[in-house]
Amino acid sequence: MTSDFHKEKQIVAEYYAQLDSATPGAIASVLEAFTSADYIWRGYHPFNEMTAAHDVAESFWQPLRGALTSLQRRMDVFMAGQNTIADEGGVWVVSMGHLMGLFDQPWLGIPPTGKMAMLRYCEFHCVDNGKISKTAMYFDIPHLMTQAGLHPFPSQTAAHLVQPGPMTHDGLMFAAQDPAKGQKTLDVIEKMIGDLGQWNSGLSLVEELRRTWAEDMIWWGPEGIGATYTIERYAKQHSGPFRASLTDRSKTKHVARLAEGNFGGFFGWPNFTATPSGGFMGMSASNTPGEFRVIDIYRRDGDKLVENWVFIDLLHFWKMQGVDVLARTTGFGAGGESGAQGGVK
Q: pLDDT for 301-311, tens place per residue?
């Protein structure tokens, strides 16, 4: 595993500097300057997949910047690595944190508060021949809804707060890292994926988790599920209910998986499918398989994983079940006036 991704990191860092300081009318020009002609952008519902930088600017960035004024990027993790998924390959640069601004205008029908608001996000950028050729950007729209006083889901099993970055405050890796550390992180993640994907290890859930997770692990989950602390509470407040509620889980498939230093992560489109036949998140059960588009970012300590930041496109999953959470909560996309403001073109 190579240790020097300076060129790719520099391209993404400069892209962020120009994007974050651009006027609304210049956002499209910035994206076009930094992305390839065959650019692919994959995002949270209702944005989904776009294949033109201009569309990404017009449909996502301009309305978001108009709604969250004085937008500030607050990064907690910045890393890069060689993609270990052979079919995709490439060097990917990952950024995770919050986009913070003043919620001054409606966005996707979510009413403004006039107060600070934070949209947690994570981005994977594939950098190829000096250009960003692919982006996966997942962001927690339901958490922004709750900040505006809306309730998109029934009560969650864990707790959702504004989620902090790594406890060690060492996630911003602008300089090269020891490749041996990255390989060790990747090895632990691979082992965890092997356990996670089978659901029939023969061990109790807690015993299975202890194979790759530290006892005081923290799972920073999305709005609708929440965050949970320690193996015992994670098993009780998320992993146990998750497995009990879902059946017919497909095999795990990722687009990108990488590690650098003590951090690593992956994303899929989707990662896997499963059927909420026992109900899930307090919602009605169904016999319809749904897609889980997920980004996971991990921090390793020793030979165990200690922190995990999780982004799940729950709006997409429930839309596949016939439940348009965004429309029923905000009116967006349902033909109402609120859905016409700050929307997708």
A: 999 999 999 99
181: which residues sit within 8 A by CB, 6+ positions away?
A: 261, 262
Q: How does DSSP assign 324-344, residue by residue? A: -HHHHHH-TTTTSSGGGTT--
**Which is nearest to 16 in space by CA: 178, 137, 163?**
137
Query: Above 60 in pLDDT, residue 72?
Result: yes
Q: Is there a shared CATH topology between the 6-165 domain and the 179-326 domain?
A: yes
- Residue type present at position 7: K
- The H helix count followed by the E strand count for the chain is 11, 14
Domain ranges, ordered by start, for the chain: 6-165, 179-326
Q: How far apart are CA 60 and CA 46, in angstroms?
A: 10
User: For 224-269, what is each residue's pLDDT tens digit?
Assistant: 999 999 999 999 999 999 999 999 989 899 999 999 999 999 999 9
243 in Cβ contact with 257 (< 8 Å): no
pLDDT digits over 226-236, tens only?
999 999 999 99
Helix (H, G, I), strand (E, B) or coil at 222: coil
Alpha carbon distance 214, 337 (integer Å)? 49
Question: For residue 156, what pLDDT is reported?
Answer: 75
Query: Are 64 and 107 in contact, with CB atoms under 8 Å apart?
Result: yes
Q: 6-165 in CATH: which number?
A: 3.10.450.50
For residue 216 the two structure tokens come to 């005081």
The amino acid occupying position 316 is H
Report the alpha-carbon angle 83-274-196, nearest 5.
50
pTM for the model stands at 0.94
Please, how many CA atoms are within 13 Å of residue 153, restricted to the half-sphere of its CB? Answer: 24
Please report the pLDDT score of residue 16 as a whole number. Answer: 98
* φ/ψ (deg, to 5) at 143: -70, -35
Q: Return the ∠ at Cα 270 (arms to 56 and 245), rounded to 5°.
A: 130
pLDDT value at position 123? 98
User: Which CATH number does 179-326 carry?
Assistant: 3.10.450.50
Angle at which helix 6-21 crosses helix 27-34, to 10 degrees, equals: 170
